[in-house]
Amino acid sequence: MAQQDTDQQHGGVLPVDDEGFVIDTEETEERERAHRERGASRPITVVGNPVLHKECRDVTEFDDELLKLVDDMFASQRTAEGVGLAANQIGVDLKVFVYDCPDDEGARHVGVVCNPKLVELPADRRRLDDSNEGCLSVPTAYAALARPDYAEVTGQDERGNPIKVRGTGYFARCLQHETDHLYGYLYIDRLSKRERKDALRQMAENEPRYPVVANG
Q1: pLDDT digits (tens, 9 = 90+) for 142-155
Q2: Residue 123 burial (CB < 10 Å; 0-12/13-18/19+)?
Q3: Where is the composition biased (Basic and acidic residues) (predicted)?
Q4: Of 23, 124, 147, 174, which residue has the fewest beta carbons closer than 10 angstroms?
Q5: What is the value of pTM for the model shown?
């Protein structure tokens, strides 16, 4: 996703709180830096490339190759100045995303989710936020999109441990946006035809500030 205009160890990569959600707000700078310094930045795949428009494969091998991919994703995310990145955005057909995203209280969240699934929220928890949204795969374009201002995602970390992640505000939007990617949806797919056309026009009229993979 593009940027906007009581610890309890469970054997996973990150500790969890009393409700079993990962604590992803500690040592964020050190963890993110370690990933991207090991990784190599890759160009971003943009709308129109087939890998973005189909559901990705489940991660089944939690091996060194996956760890290398995660490092490259953090490096690519930093180059593109994003707050979230799905594997298919660098052309890899696997259900994994990384994030380095603030919430609306200013807390920085850094982590990795493999095989994510959004938890369906009851109606009384579905307060919609219609803030602007952007995407590294639709560079330079933004549009208002209503999404719930709270989100929970279940999945696995990069070592295969089961995890739960939750977020509010901007971070909730990021969790929903990146999970969408891995099931073949871009945020512009949730817009009206007119709004989608306008977003693609914005993209066509401006130059991305990071390397992208040309379609065709």
Answers
A1: 999 999 999 999 99
A2: exposed
A3: 30-39
A4: 124
A5: 0.94
- 91 strand-pairing partners: none
> Is there a binding annotation on residue 135?
yes
| Whole-number Å distance between alpha carbons of 120 and 11 | 27
Tokens of 127: 């307060």
166 vs 175: CA distance, rounded Å: 8
**Residue 177 marked ligand-binding:** yes
Tally of CA atoms within 13 A in the half-sphere of 94 that contains its CB: 21
Please give the Cα distance from 93 to 148 (Å, whole number). 27
Determine the Cα–Cα distance for residues 74 and 77; give it in Å rounded to an integer: 5
Active site residue 178: yes
Spatial distance between the Cα atoms of 147 and 68, rounded to a whole number of angstroms: 32
Residue 10: DSSP 8-state? -
* 12: number of Cβ within 10 Å: 16
Tell me which of 32, 133, 158, 178 is the catalytic residue. Answer: 178
